[in-house]
Backbone:
């Protein structure tokens, strides 16, 4: 479904991703793990077009993503739930969901999508008129995921959905991720919560300073020395 | 000083309310643009002036007034979009002072163009709508019409912003510009639409003013500062704040002007403004420091 090959990217001054190749197949949940500053967020930003790649190729269902302007990437079926959620705090929950359905294809089926997301997350329906910024962290993450689903995506990019949440809520957020997997969405998820995310994911990649250090099934990664040494505290 | 709580005092208050509608409408356009794009259109009143001339020439050229009014609105909307594309867009990431100065430059440019092209004479459409009255009070129909149309215009904008996808995007982009591409939104297009809507509001203001006031190239100087004062008093970028401030300031102008001389009305209004922002620098509804 998604294929990256030889991707390099960075910000003014420093290069952040080096010759990075990876793939995500339809129906999979793939985890990207790595320390702070490894380049995980940068990777998702490159995929969703927020940050242009410097070199390499990137295709979604065989169509190159590097030729599209950032706001056209959603239309290829990629929805990005950004780091720290980035809801529109002074818009209602429902207006946030409406923004998720901005692209023409989703707009035409807005009511249908809204009922679908409300069915999936009834809490959002209860809170539909509340300002998004006044909800709890867990509810906000639910809203951010709901907003992404409004576009009718095939692939959902999740950037540290458990960040900044209490342990009980972290559990609930991973349950949400399981829910959207069951709904048939393909998932690419960035997490520092390695143990949890490898329970949800089929496969994963370990990134270190902008390069893929290891890759494999969740079980392989859990057993690998690289992951055990760095992230499991064992 | 001649102020009594008589029927003329009530008349002044009601005239203040009528004036507030127009001022609130004008403040709304400026606030919309600032709230969304974060740029102050110093030349805002000059856009209104351009609209007034457009309506004048269309009407005196034989176009029926309603159509001339529509043309005026569209002309200013297009000017607003053009202003954004040509002048604002290149300095979007520059310090606010640069943005202020370029739109200030447009102010002088538009005044110069109007003086050269239209002359310094006072122009008037010559439409007399007359007045109505009850209980010894008289009210000009042009003012009543301006009030009603301004309220309708603001209501229409509110519906547009709260109900439509485009309107929701305009509100959203004011809160987080960077993630708009993730919503499939082309931010530059939203800015263009916002500028056109802001211009359209100035154009509607021009329609209502052209029925009440004479047109001349410097007319913007007469009400421009008032509009900025209302926006700052309400809290720059706050549409609700601008609405409330317009009603407050209009009372000072109308009642102050009726008790003393008209010029004093403006002076009292500015005095109130200075005291108010001394107490609340961010404005009545402002959130920015
Ligand atoms: N806007 C930016 N401008 C310049 N450098 C940046 C910017 N954003 C990130 N970087 C740098 O790029 C590198 C990778 O950052 P990135 O945010 O991708 O890491 P991350 O793996 O997501 O980290 P975290 O787990 O803390 O979220 C870091 O060295 C960071 O300082
Ligand atoms: Mg990150």
Residues:
């Amino acid at each position: 479904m998604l294929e990256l090959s030889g991707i390099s990217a960075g910000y003014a001054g420093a290069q952040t991703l080096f010759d990075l190749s990876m793939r995500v197949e339809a129906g999979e949940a793939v985890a990207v793990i790595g320390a702070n500053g490894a380049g995980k967020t940068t990777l998702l930003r490159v995929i969703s077009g927020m940050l242009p790649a410097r070199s390499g190729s990137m295709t979604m269902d065989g169509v190159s993503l590097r030729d599209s302007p950032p706001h056209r990437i959603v239309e290829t079926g990629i929805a990005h739930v950004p780091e720290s959620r980035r809801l529109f705090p002074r818009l209602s929950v429902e207006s946030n969901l409406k923004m998720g359905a901005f692209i023409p294809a989703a707009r035409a089926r807005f009511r249908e999508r809204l009922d679908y997301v409300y069915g999936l997350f009834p809490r959002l329906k209860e809170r539909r008129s509340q300002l998004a910024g006044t909800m709890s962290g867990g509810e906000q993450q639910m809203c951010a995921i709901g907003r992404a689903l409004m576009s009718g995506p095939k692939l959902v990019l999740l950037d540290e959905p458990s960040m900044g949440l209490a342990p009980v809520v972290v559990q609930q957020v991973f349950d949400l991720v399981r829910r959207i997997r069951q709904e048939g969405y393909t998932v690419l998820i960035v997490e520092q919560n390695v143990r949890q995310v490898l329970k949800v994911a089929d496969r994963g990649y370990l990134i270190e300073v902008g390069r893929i250090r290891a890759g494999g099934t969740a079980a392989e990664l859990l057993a690998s020395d690289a992951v055990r040494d760095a992230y499991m505290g064992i | 000083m001649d102020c009594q709580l008589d029927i003329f005092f009530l008349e002044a208050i009601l005239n203040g309310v009528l004036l507030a509608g127009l001022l609130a409408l004008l403040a709304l356009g400026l606030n919309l643009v600032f709230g969304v794009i974060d740029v102050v259109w110093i030349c805002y009143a000059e856009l209104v002036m351009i609209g007034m001339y457009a309506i004048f020439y269309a009407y005196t050229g034989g176009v029926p007034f309603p159509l001339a009014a529509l043309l005026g609105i569209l002309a200013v909307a297009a000017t607003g979009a053009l202003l954004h594309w040509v002048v604002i867009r290149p300095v979007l990431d520059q310090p606010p002072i640069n943005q202020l100065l370029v739109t200030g430059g447009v102010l002088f440019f538009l005044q110069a163009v109007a003086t050269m092209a239209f002359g310094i004479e006072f122009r008037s459409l010559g439409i007399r709508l007359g007045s109505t009255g009850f209980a010894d009070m008289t009210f000009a129909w042009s003012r009543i019409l301006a009030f009603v149309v301004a309220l309708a215009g603001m209501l229409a904008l509110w519906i547009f912003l709260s109900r439509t996808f485009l309107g929701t995007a305009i509100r959203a982009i004011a809160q987080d510009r960077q993630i708009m591409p993730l919503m499939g939104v082309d931010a530059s297009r939203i800015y263009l639409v916002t500028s056109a809507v802001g211009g359209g509001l100035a154009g509607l203001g021009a329609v209502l003013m052209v029925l009440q006031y004479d047109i001349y190239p410097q007319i913007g100087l007469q009400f421009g500062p008032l509009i900025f004062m209302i926006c700052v008093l309400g809290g720059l970028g706050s549409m609700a704040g601008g609405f409330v401030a317009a009603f407050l300031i209009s009372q000072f102008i109308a009642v102050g002007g009726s008790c003393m001389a008209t010029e004093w009305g403006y002076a009292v209004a500015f005095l109130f403004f200075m005291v108010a922002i001394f107490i609340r620098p961010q404005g009545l509804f402002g959130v920015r420091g």
